[in-house]
Amino acid sequence: SYTVDFRGATRDVIEAQYQGMLDDLRAVTERFHMTYDVEETLWVEPVELSGDFRRYIEESCTKRGYSNMHILSGAGHDAQVFGARMPAAMIFVPSIGGRSHCPEENTDERTLAQASVAACDTLRQICAEKKL
Q1: DSSP code at position 126
Q2: pLDDT tens column, 37-67
Q3: Can you tell me the mean pLDDT for 70-74?
Q4: Contact 60/51 with Cβ under 8 angstroms?
Q5: How do the domains of the chain map onto residue ranges?
């Protein structure tokens, strides 16, 4: 028994991955006279995050000389839930050694501080835009 987590920016991408897996399962099990069962346990619609908020984050990082890049998360985060109802964005920071979602996960303080500054700049830009 195993679990597969398909991730993508659109429903079509996720469904193509899922269909590809089913096609491969059929081919392998037919060849070796085996059977399989698939149980779908969760489907979450992908959400496109705010282009404006993402641009504000990038502008902050660029202005301050921080390295940055756009990435697709694909994983479920609070921003996915909120992003379906209101503008949302996320700031990811690299973990030392690439370790994520485990006890060894760690990020250096300077990087965390930079992410906090970028978040603050972004909130200021949103407030200025909304005249708050």
Answers
A1: H
A2: 999 998 888 888 899 999 999 999 999 999 9
A3: 82
A4: no
A5: 1-45, 51-130
